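Researcher: I've been going back and forth with a colleague about how Serine carboxypeptidase-like 19 might be arranged in three dimensions. Neither of us has a model we trust, so I'd like an independent prediction. The organism is Thlaspi arvense, in case that matters for your notes. Sequence below.
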Amino acid sequence: MNYLPGLKGPLPFELETGYVSVGESGDVELFYYFVKSERNPEKDPLMIWLTGGPGCSSICGLLYTNGPLAFKGDEYNGTLPPLELTSFSWTKVANILYVESPAGSGFSYARTQRAFKSSDTKQFHQIDQFLRSVKSWFVDHPEFISNPFYVGGDSYSGRIVPGVVQQISLGNEKGLTPLVNIQGYVLGNPSVGSKFEINHQVPFANRMGLISDELFESLERSCGGKFFNVDLSNAECSNGLENYQQCISEIYKENILLPNCEVDYVIPPETLQNIRIGKRRVMKEFSGNDSSALPPRSCFSFRNSEILHASSSQTYKYFLSAFWANDENVRRALGVKKGFRRWSRCTTQYLPYTYDVRNAIPHLVNISRKGFRSLVYRQD
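Model: Here is an independent structure prediction for Serine carboxypeptidase-like 19. You can compare it with whatever you and your colleague have in mind.
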């Protein structure tokens, strides 16, 4: 496509969108955004990007994380939120395939209730199918088969990406075609296992000055360094953890420099209409321009068109994406299936999903032994 609603002028890069059928009977349609490298698409690496959740749209990657576009963040005035080009896009040196997985994420969907059910391991197989089934993405794009291939993702995809890399690698070893030239993986702020991560949250909080040395030393001693599934009969440990939770209760865990704000990402239809028709006061409060009306750091949440809190700039972009992705002109340009339900940034709570990878470390160990390159980073 040459133009995208929200951006003035033609796109300075090549963008393609579409659906690929996967699943046992091809009854799952995974939506994708493909951005060609702005440098040398024929030779530059190709990366498939999987946003976490599970159930979050890959728009998160395209417009918030490493893509060539972003929302301007201007005060919302009831029209289509404007887009702007970014200077940090990974697509300046790589081809990126942003895939909405599993079904129910973004604009992806399933044709049956059975197909709608997903899991961690099911994602491994479906992403592999996306790449090299009879009707796969590579079948339609054979010119990219020889490009160095990477799997990337963030957040909950820390449990999905390693399994996908292993699945692709095993397929290559079995001689499945096309042979994917997989070289490694990239993980941003990955979640690799709840037990593993929770046991490191308390030491992290101490090192970042969120809890005192005295509380940390008490927790280490009474809990034995284990803060997951604590024995309730251990009163000293339980009380210490309550004090710990109280200390961090007003801190946004994903970015400790921000307050913990309640945010509703699914904007009710009546809210959209109320904002479009009117109230300048609401616009000022929402955008954070009226400092007397908002708490510090601007954290917001909409519910029945009432602003309950203020919001961070990142959360404001989440809000704008609901207007952009639900605009009919945008959907038509992207080629979204007609009559598709209302788009939500994340649909985690609505997915019939089985969390069957409790710990991704074994997968990480296996693919590391095979010599795959890796980049694991933290981004606030």
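Researcher: What would you highlight for our discussion?
Model: I'd start with this: The chain has a mean pLDDT of 84. After that, consider the following. Residues 162 and 364 are 6 Å apart (CA to CA).
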